[in-house]
Write a sequence for this structure.
């Protein structure tokens, strides 16, 4: 039985880090740090629960079942098809991938402005390179784990240490949304990274790359996924904490910054001068490239598996073209729809991960999987209707009676209550039997 050496193990861990760490992962923590001020440590802890802990658990749990589809089919085949289609298409070609390309463009051409011709040329060149890097999905560990991610990790560490050495200011008071429940607000902020959603999709690619490294038996594959995922999670939490600290500790120095990219631009210029812009452009380009490679590879593998008559390369070309078009023309409109979509998809994904984690408690009962997930879907959908313009009085009345609905957790109490009741029902059934 072949074992991974330390070098290969680190590469797998770095690959997992790179698969998660994209544009949003760079932008959100410094802004959270600035806005939460003295409570940044609580906010980033909440952020890490939804953007690190849950995604890492998701990767590990999906690996135990072999594939996310094996889990979703417990809920229903139709649900599996609809949920996965929404998940793949929204987070890859419609939101996460175009967002990453657009973010890297805005950083590199910050002083040029948003000129459509430059954006078109940049998007075509960017996605042409991404397409070529995605042609061999079983070599993803080499591209991300050996080259891109270690460089990215090192550059972020240099920016952090450089800022500490240069000197920082005192923390500011938190904004209102962080002053009462900073941990919960940070948790909700973590939704925007899309990591909980992408986590359940990465299992196939991880298994493919481990087999490429010579690890064949399922037990060893699961073992290495668990160990490397934990290490990647520690690295992600460390980086988020560093970047959030920078945002919080420089808030008085750069009070007029409006987003995470602005904060990092000011910090790198403060520490490294004009070279700071070059450094930041490289960091963003690597981070954005990593997430684009990961997601386009996953969605192309998924649809090739569903319809092998169309080759992986043709699926890859299709989704790359769609991502290119969206990044040029339609990103702003789609991003306005992102928040309601995340408030719908994230609770469902988080609950499914929870079910896999507690599967042994209810002996994998199909009814628990099915009915509790339907309740999550129902209450999550009910919660986002006002955000989609359907501000009906009856919906507002219903939501007002549901605990935690104003914190976007209307689904939690009803779902968990049904979960407990179904487990009690199962226990009583076996006692009577």
């Amino acid at each position: 039985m072949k074992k991974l050496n330390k070098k290969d193990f680190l590469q797998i861990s770095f690959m997992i880090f790179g698969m998660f760490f994209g544009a949003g992962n760079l932008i959100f923590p410094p802004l959270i740090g600035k806005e939460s001020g003295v409570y940044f440590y609580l906010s980033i802890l909440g952020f890490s629960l939804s953007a690190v802990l849950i995604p890492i658990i998701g990767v590990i749990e999906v690996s135990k079942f072999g594939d996310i589809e094996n889990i979703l089919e417990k809920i229903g085949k139709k649900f599996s098809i609809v949920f996965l289609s929404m998940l793949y298409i929204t987070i890859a070609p419609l939101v996460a991938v175009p967002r990453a390309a657009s973010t890297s463009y805005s950083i590199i051409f910050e002083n040029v402005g948003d000129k459509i011709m430059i954006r078109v040329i940049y998007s075509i060149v960017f996605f042409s390179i991404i397409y070529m890097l995605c042609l061999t999905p079983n070599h993803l560990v080499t591209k991300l784990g050996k080259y891109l991610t270690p460089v990215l990790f090192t550059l972020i560490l240099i920016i952090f240490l450089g800022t500490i050495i240069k000197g920082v200011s005192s923390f500011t008071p938190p904004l209102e949304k962080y002053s009462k429940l900073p941990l919960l607000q940070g948790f909700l902020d973590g939704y925007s990274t899309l990591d909980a959603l992408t986590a359940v999709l990465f299992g196939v690619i991880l298994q493919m790359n481990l087999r490429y490294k010579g690890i064949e038996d399922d037990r060893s594959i699961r073992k290495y996924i668990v160990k490397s995922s934990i290490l990647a999670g520690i690295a992600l939490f460390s980086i988020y904490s560093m970047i959030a600290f920078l945002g919080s500790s420089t808030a008085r120095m750069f009070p007029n910054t409006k987003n995470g990219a602005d904060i990092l631009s000011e910090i790198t210029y403060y520490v490294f001068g004009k070279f700071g812009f070059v450094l930041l452009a490289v960091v963003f380009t690597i981070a954005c490239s990593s997430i684009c490679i990961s997601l386009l590879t996953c969605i192309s593998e998924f649809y090739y598996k569903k319809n092998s008559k169309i080759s992986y390369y043709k699926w890859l070309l299709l989704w790359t073209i769609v991502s290119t078009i969206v990044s040029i023309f339609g990103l702003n409109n789609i991003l306005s729809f992102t928040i309601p979509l995340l408030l719908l998809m994230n609770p469902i994904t988080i609950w499914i991960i929870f079910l896999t984690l507690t599967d042994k408690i209810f002996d994998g009962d199909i009814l628990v999987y099915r009915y509790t997930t339907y309740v999550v879907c129902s209450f999550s959908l009910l919660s986002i209707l006002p955000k989609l313009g359907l501000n009906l009085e009856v919906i507002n009345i219903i939501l007002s009676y549901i605990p935690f609905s104003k914190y976007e957790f209307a689904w939690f109490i009803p779902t968990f209550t049904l979960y407990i009741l179904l487990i009690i029902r199962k226990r009583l059934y076996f006692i009577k039997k």
